[in-house]
Amino acid sequence: MKKILIVEDHADIRKLIRMTLEFDNYEIHEAADGVSGLKAAQDVKPDLVLMDVMMPGELDGLQVCQRIKADPEIKHIPVVLLTARGQVKDREAGMAAGTTAYLVKPFSPLQLIDTIEQLLATA
What we know:
With 123 residues, this protein is an alpha/beta fold. It is 46% helix and 21% strand. It is built from five helices and five strands.
């Protein structure tokens, strides 16, 4: 069973993503901020991370992505950034942080599932 970590500060968005993925055979883990998201990635070692970019607290999604990609134990994990920021400079910042894919909110559940299936198929 593939493990997916959802790192998102809005509980309703976490719930929506979890409900979207419940129909597939995934083990879902959640974190509500960047610091707990990074710790969960290190502890759980998920097959994929779905992460919001803008989160309150010490670490935002870009910083967590950079730290995941800098950690030899978990750098292979694909990170999908989920954000309301769709400008070219925002995408470039995501790519510079090491993201594997970039989905702009609002995204469709189908788009999310397609992205996850493609990434897990190549992992």
